[in-house]
Amino acid sequence: MAGRDGIRDMLRGLRVFAGPMAAFDPSAAPDDPVDLFVEWLGEAIEAGVPEPHAMTVATADADGAPSARVLILKDLTAEGWSFATTTTSVKGRELARNPKAALLFFWGLQGRQIRLRGPVELAGSEERAADFTARSLEGRVAGLHGRQSQPLDSLETIHTTAEESRARLEADPGLVPDHWGLYRLAPTEIEFWQADPDRRHTRLRYRRENVSAPWERGLLWP
Q1: Which end of the chain has fewer CB atoms < 10 Å from its terminal CB, N or C?
Q2: Region 42-64: what's the mean pLDDT?
Q3: Which residues contact residue 34 at a Cβ distance below 8 angstroms, ignoring those fewer than 6 apart?
């Protein structure tokens, strides 16, 4: 493994767009980007893309400083793309102050990216409760304590807290913490990006003025 002095050469020696790349004809794309997303997601699953429902979620604080992390897409409806976290987490607090976000799906095996951005809403209490109770036991255990991103004194504290949370959930399977959040991003912009080994990438962008407006689409320079 190269040391710090050799990392530049190591990075430049790594292959990109090794292929085989997926095919994409933007002229045949549907008018609704949701239909195209569902089509691409199905192709990613068939191609064996690992965790194709994983996405980067980028938020910003009140000063505009960004942060990003990988979450799982929980649902996709006419209202938007859904993801879950605690309202007390960094992303939850940032969304409370600045309710906008960007999502990024990257499916390297196919040379594809899908980029979205738009306003974010916190779902109602019933939807949040239904999302929490549908999680696995370990997922509910992890979401019950509500201390995400807070300072931690030791790893042992995680295990102790988890055992306490598991006991609470086993005693009350319907328990839902007040801080559980289900968020929904309603995109005003969606871009479908298809890689080309010669760097002649295809970029198709859908845009709308607001979440009630019709979609307009066009190609972008790579």
Answers
A1: N
A2: 96
A3: 76, 78
73-107: per-residue pLDDT in tens? 999 998 999 999 999 999 999 999 999 999 999 99
168 near 140, Cβ under 8 Å? no
Token digits for 25?
Answer: 């004809």
Share of the chain above pLDDT 70, in %: 99
Instruction: For residue 57, list its beta bridge partners.
Output: 69, 103
Q: Which residues pair with 182 in a beta bridge?
A: 84
Residues 122-141 pLDDT 10s: 999 999 999 999 999 999 99
DSSP string, the chain: ---GGGHHHHHHHS--S-SPPPP--GGG--SSHHHHHHHHHHHHHHTT-SSTTEEEEEEE-TT--EEEEEEE--EEETTEEEEEEETTSHHHHHHHHS-EEEEEEEEGGGTEEEEEEEEEEEPPHHHHHHHHHTS-HHHHHHHHS--TTS--S-HHHHHHHHHHHHHHHHH-TT---TTEEEEEE--SEEEEEE--TTS--EEEEEE-SSTTSPPEEEEE--
Count CA atoms closer than 13 A to 127's CA, side-chain side: 13
Q: What is the pTM of this model?
A: 0.93
Are 34 and 61 in contact by the 8 Å Cβ rule? The answer is no
